[in-house]
Design goal:
Blueprint lengths: L1 H28 L3 E7 L3 E3 L11 E12 L4 E12 L2 E9 L8 E6 L9 E6 L4 E6 L5 E4 L4 H14 L1
Antiparallel strand pairs: 1-3, 2-9, 3-4, 4-5, 5-6, 6-7, 7-8, 8-9
Length: 162
C-alpha cells in the first residue's frame, strides 16, 4: 500500500513539474516583441504602367507568437501602426501558415473601427519585401522595387506562394 502511494506521489510530482515547465516556456514564447521596419524608396502606382510616387513606409508594432495545437503550426500576429508618406494607419496582420511559406497578410485601416481597410498588406521574404494594394482602388505600393516590372514580379511571387 505504501509503494502505491509513493509511486502515485512521484507521478503527480512529475506531472506538476512538466506543467510548470510548459507554462513558463509558453509565457516566454508568446511574449510580444517589438517590431520596427522601414522600407525606403518603395514605388507607388495606380495603373501598373507608370510610377506615381515613392513614399516612405515605416512599420512600428509588436509581434506575438502563438502555437496552434490544431495544426501544430506557429502563428505570428503583427499589431501596430504603419506610416505611409507621413500618414499613420492601424495595422493588424498574421501569417498564413506553412502552405504560403509564412506570408504575413494584414489590413491597414485609417481607424481601427473602420469596417473596410484602406490597404491590404503582404509581407514576405522574412519581412524584407512588402506589397500593399488598395482595397477599393487600384493603388499599389511595393518594396524593394524600382520599376513597374519589379511590382509585377512581387505580385507573381506572392501568387506563387499562395
Amino acid at each position: 500500500m505504501k509503494i502505491i502511494k509513493t509511486n502515485t506521489t512521484k507521478f503527480l510530482y512529475v506531472i506538476a513539474i512538466i506543467f510548470i515547465v510548459i507554462t513558463i516556456a509558453g509565457a516566454f514564447y508568446t511574449r510580444p516583441t517589438k517590431f520596427h521596419k522601414t522600407f525606403n524608396n518603395p514605388i507607388s502606382t495606380t495603373d501598373l504602367i507608370s510610377v506615381s510616387s515613392s513614399p516612405t513606409i515605416e512599420i512600428d508594432g509588436f509581434i506575438t507568437k502563438r502555437l496552434s495545437i490544431k495544426d501544430f503550426n506557429k502563428q505570428i500576429i503583427l499589431n501596430g501602426k504603419i506610416k505611409i508618406d507621413n500618414k499613420t494607419y492601424d495595422l493588424f496582420a498574421y501569417n498564413l501558415g506553412k502552405a504560403t511559406n509564412y506570408v504575413v497578410f494584414g489590413e491597414v485601416k485609417e481607424n481601427s473601427n473602420d469596417m473596410y481597410p484602406k490597404y491590404m498588406l503582404f509581407l514576405f521574404d522574412d519581412y524584407n519585401s512588402i506589397y500593399l494594394t488598395g482595397f477599393d482602388s487600384k493603388h499599389y505600393i511595393a518594396s524593394p522595387a524600382k520599376t513597374i516590372d519589379d511590382i509585377k514580379n512581387l505580385q507573381t511571387k506572392l501568387q506563387r506562394k499562395n
